[in-house]
Design goal:
alpha/beta; seven-stranded parallel β-sheet
């Protein structure tokens, strides 16, 4: 619903319920949760945006996630089941899917990201499922017992998780226990697991580990990473997809 607020300047409960295929009370509950973390202001019949400071410009030399999203989506199946986590990398993948959607039905996408669900819900050939749960003020993803209980019932062909840190020895990490718990559950439900990160996250570690490097099949990186760091993952048998910040669009992955 955050995307609708940004685009339309207002969200109506009845309209949102119809677009998402849920009960109006479900929308009202989500709006209350989003208001509690300062993401919107509820008004009669819906909600309006609150003024916030824009995200600071990137200073780490990494590219945005649009190129990486396109590269990854170009190799993902157009049918079956796909799980997408939360965060800027996840939204980059969702944007790539939206720009080049499947031409036929058959792909089901599940996500704990409200923003990703909104972007993908506009594509008629994709079935979109939002996990639900408490909205995190840090990641804007859904967490808690509700999210974990839903994830426990799932099995998907491919799971895309977005850790804050990924290191060959320290594994995949998240800044909060709640986020780490959801990421852990998402890792376990995927037949194939892809970690999608920024270059600055490679070789770094956040507060809570949720997976070892051996539990992922592929590492997708937006930005420039030293060859020495990449070699650590190659040695562990991890497939790499890298979208360098200074590489022209259309040139092959290195």
């Amino acid at each position: 619903m955050a995307g609708w607020l940004a685009a339309d300047g207002r969200v109506q409960v009845v309209d949102a319920a119809g677009r998402l295929g849920v009960a109006p009370e479900t929308v009202r509950r989500d709006l209350r949760q989003m208001e509690s973390v300062g993401r919107l202001q509820r008004v009669h019949g819906g909600a309006v945006p609150v003024l916030t400071e824009p995200d600071p410009p990137r200073t780490d030399g990494a590219s945005d996630y649009s190129d990486l999203g396109r590269r990854l989506w170009g190799r993902l199946p157009r049918s079956g089941t796909l799980l997408i986590g939360t965060g800027r990398p996840a939204l980059g993948l969702a944007d790539a899917i939206s720009a080049d959607p499947p031409t036929a039905a058959g792909l089901t996408i599940v996500t704990n990201s409200l923003d990703v669900a909104i972007v993908l819900s506009k594509i008629p050939t994709i079935g979109v499922y939002n996990i639900g749960g408490t909205v995190s003020p840090q990641s804007h993803g859904q967490e808690g017992d509700w999210a974990l209980s839903e994830l426990d019932r799932l099995r998907v062909d491919v799971a895309v998780v977005c850790p804050a840190g990924v290191d060959a020895e320290r594994g995949l990490t998240d800044p909060t226990p709640g986020g780490a718990a959801v990421n852990r559950a998402e890792t376990l439900v995927g037949g194939r697991v892809i970690a999608m990160v920024d270059a600055a996250s490679v070789g770094a570690a956040a507060f809570v580990q949720f997976a070892t490097i051996d539990e992922i099949d592929e590492l997708a990186i937006a930005g420039d990473v030293a060859a020495k760091l990449l070699q650590h993952f190659i040695d562990r048998g991890i497939e790499l997809t890298v979208a360098p910040a200074d590489q022209a669009e259309g040139r092959p992955d290195r």
